[in-house]
Design brief:
Order of helices and strands: EEEHEHEHEHEEHHHEHHH
Helix content: 25-40%
Strand order of the largest sheet: 5-4-1-6-8-7-9
Number of strands: 9
Strand content: 5-15%
Radius of gyration: 18 Å
CATH architecture: Alpha-Beta Complex
Oligomer: single chain
Length: 284
């Protein structure tokens, strides 16, 4: 079993890494789509920066020319930006962690523009409070929060080991499956919804399809003006009062990347994804 050395909270350099690129398969340029005058990437980073327990936020993009736009945006907004391999996202996280001298990285994908800062802090605090007990902590293995609140906490020693030993392409593309699928090697902690609910397969707040963008934009239009840092329960109240908003992207509820790798993932099962075929050719 691999066990990392726990560092005192006061000494931890906790770096949030947001992987982002322009060449998204189903919705190219999605991170640059506008909401209330700013890109979704900036809106998400505003929410991440409201977290109290992270040290810094870094956008990890690629070396492709198409991602010069992301680098320029980060420069203009005063956001740290790192460039790495387009397809080996594990390497991109690892190299960014080294560059920023991280002790712990927080992996949050750029398809979570509705992420609740309080959930980020809850997962980080769970790791800090239990860092002698766990080598890796997330809120998605298995998930309980609405899809789009993904937080994974990875100490650099664990990330380094994973970087050296993960061989399968899906492990390199998604960064953490090697950790998930080796519970005999890593002590894995999961931070679940404190109310005991599981909305992971019923509430879709992530960004992957045009309909997702329209849903997210509608949520921002309804809530941002009253509270820029609206949270989980504000969104739940909104969609309960306006079920028509949920209908915007309801056809994709439960759809995620797991469905393509169920034969390879050892610790993910069919109840955590949907297998139906969807037409990805829709446009905004």
């Amino acid at each position: 079993m691999f066990i990392h050395i726990c560092i005192r909270e006061s000494d931890m350099n906790i770096v949030v890494i947001v992987q982002a690129r322009m060449n998204s398969t189903r919705l190219p340029g999605k991170v640059m789509l506008p909401v209330l005058g700013k890109s979704l990437l900036i809106r998400q980073i505003e929410r991440i920066k409201a977290s109290h327990l992270s040290t810094s936020v870094v956008v990890a993009t690629t070396t492709e020319n198409t991602d010069d736009l992301i680098v320029k945006l980060c420069h203009n907004e005063g956001i740290e930006c790192f460039r790495g391999d387009e397809n080996d996202v594990l390497d991109r996280h690892y190299q960014a962690g080294l560059y920023y001298n991280a002790d712990v990285i927080i992996k949050i994908p750029s398809d979570c523009p509705l992420i609740d800062p309080r959930i980020i802090d809850k997962v980080i605090k769970f790791y800090i409070d239990h860092c002698t007990e766990y080598d890796f902590v997330s809120n998605l293995h298995p998930a309980t929060y609405p899809d789009g609140n993904d937080v994974e906490v990875i100490p650099m020693s664990i990330l380094e080991y994973t970087h050296k030993h993960a061989k399968n392409s899906f492990e390199r593309e998604h960064t953490t499956p090697f950790i998930w699928d080796n519970p005999d090697m890593f002590r894995i902690g999961n931070c679940t919804w404190e109310l005991g609910y599981d909305f992971s397969m019923s509430h879709r707040w992530t960004l992957d399809y045009p309909e997702d963008y329209h849903f997210i934009a509608e949520v921002y239009k309804k809530l941002y003006i009253h509270n820029p840092l609206f949270g989980l329960y504000d969104i739940l109240s909104l969609v309960e009062d306006h079920p028509e908003i949920t209908e915007i992207n309801s056809r994709y509820v439960g759809v995620n990347w797991y469905r393509k790798h169920l034969h390879q993932l050892k610790t993910v099962n069919i109840s955590q994804t949907r297998l139906e075929y969807f037409d990805d050719r829709a446009r905004i």
